Structure formats: C-alpha cells, structure tokens
Amino acid sequence: MSTHESRSGLRPISVGNLSEELPSHGYPLEMVEIVEAANGQHITVRPILPLDAAKFQAFVRNLSDASRSNRFLHNLKELPGQMLQRLTRIDYRTHMALVAEILREGMPVIIAEARYACDPESGSAELAVAVADDWQGLGLAKALIRRLIGHAASAGFGRLTGETWAGNAPVLHLAREAEFSIRPVPGASGVFRLTRNIAPHPDLSQQQALTAAE
Ligand SMILES: CC(C)(COP(=O)(O)OP(=O)(O)OC[C@H]1O[C@@H](n2cnc3c(N)ncnc32)[C@H](O)[C@@H]1OP(=O)(O)O)[C@@H](O)C(=O)NCCC(=O)NCCS
C-alpha cells in the first residue's frame, strides 16, 4: 500500500460475495476490491459494467460544471447515449475503466472513475479520471490511477497519455507525482499533453522474450 493510500485510509478489506453478482467471462475479477476510506466509509473499486450506465450517467450529471469540463474537455451536462454505451461497454483490454462506488441510503452510487482506452493511431493508452466533487482530495484518483497503470502494463501497453487544461492544477500535480511528462499541445492553446512510459509487466516481457526467441 502506498504512503498516500495509508494516509488517506484506503485500506483493502475483502471482496466478500460480490463475485457472485459479476459476469465471469472476460471480467477482470481480480481488480474488484473493497477499501475503507479515511472517513470509515466502505468503497468498492471495480471495473465498470454495462449495467452501470444509469449510475454512471448520474455520476457525470452530478459533477460540478468545472469538474465535468475538466474531465471531458467539453461543456456537456450529461453523456449522449452512444457515448454512455461506449464508456460502459468495454472489453477490459484495449479499454479499461475502474469505478469507485459507495452505498448511499442503501443505493449504490458511483463517486469516481478512471479509465484508459487504446488510441489506434498511436497505440498508446489514453487516460481520463474524475472524482465526485465531495470526494476529491481523499486519494481516490491516485489509488485508481495506480491500479490502471498496473493493468495497462499487464495488457502490454508501453505508454499512457492524457490531455488536460493547462489551468487544471490538481491533475497537473497528480500527473507530476505519477511521473507523467507534461507538454503543451501544439496548435491547441491552453491544453497540455501528459505522457508516461510504462515498464512492461515482468511476466509479459518474459513471454515476449520467449516468443521472440522462437
Ligand atoms: C483531478 C482529480 C481527478 C483529482 O482527484 P482526487 O481524488 O481529488 O486526487 P487525489 O486525492 O488522489 O490527490 C492526488 C494529488 O493531487 C493533489 N490535489 C488534489 N486536489 C488538489 C487541488 N485542488 N489542488 C492541488 N493539488 C490537489 C493531492 O494533494 C494529491 O497530492 P499529494 O499526494 O501530494 O497529497 C479531481 O480533482 C477531479 O475529478 N477533477 C475533475 C476532473 C478532472 O480534472 N480530470 C482530469 C482530466 S481527465
């Protein structure tokens, strides 16, 4: 567990019997985790599911205008139907998304999202993250991104990239801490490009070395 996670109290608990409710085929069950936040609240961290569409739309709608604009780099109030489908129906390999979920009055509510999707042009994985305004500053983004970087490495990606407004201090801080390089995007005033090379997963490099040797 990282220092920040222990500081912010993201203590892994257990998966419990959640696995009984999830599809087994292709779903990375090993990424389902229940953690305890500093305020004692239990948070489920798990890959997104198609049946999360309504909850994910509610999460996006409930972000402040500033957070929504920072996440999507557009002034949208909610996600158009096709985009909602695309963001919740993923293959967990070329497109991976984690959500953090709590129970509010017995109902599950998504409070954070982090994802990467393969950019077919560059072959790198494009990262995006958002945390509900009331839950910001508690280490959630950092915890989700750390998990995504590990998963991207296992999936064989060599690089994670992202884009942010130049004035987005929290994400620039987060990016610097996670060892992303930060550069202005030529021709796109006020937008920064974030890039981080990922060391291949040890098992994968061994496998690739064996394949190359054949
Ligand atoms: C950027 C964002 C995802 C950070 O999420 P978060 O859960 O609050 O971040 P964390 O709590 O994990 O904090 C990570 C680091 O950023 C720092 N940070 C958080 N909020 C900050 C702020 N408002 N100003 C400066 N630094 C900040 C934290 O102190 C922490 O640094 P530390 O480890 O040195 O203490 C969140 O602010 C957000 O959802 N913003 C709107 C969407 C967005 O901007 N997405 C990014 C573009 S895709």
CATH superfamily (homologous) name? Gcn5-related N-acetyltransferase (GNAT)
CATH architecture: 3-Layer(aba) Sandwich
Give Rg in angstroms.
Answer: 17 Å
Low-confidence stretches: 204-214
| Beta-strand residue fraction | 25-35%
Instruction: Tell the overall outline.
Output: globular
As an assembly, this protein is: single chain
Q: Which structural class do the helices and strands define?
A: alpha+beta
**Small molecules held by this entry:** coenzyme A
Distance between the termini: 38 Å
Individual helix count? 7
Beta strands, count: 9
What summary fits the major beta sheet?
Answer: 9 strands, mixed
Give the helix level as a range of percent. 25-40%
For the structure shown, list the relevant keywords.
214 residues, alpha+beta, Aminopeptidase, nine-stranded mixed sheet, 7 helices, 9 strands, disordered C terminus, binds coenzyme A
Task: Briefly say what this structure is.
By secondary structure, this protein is of the alpha+beta class.
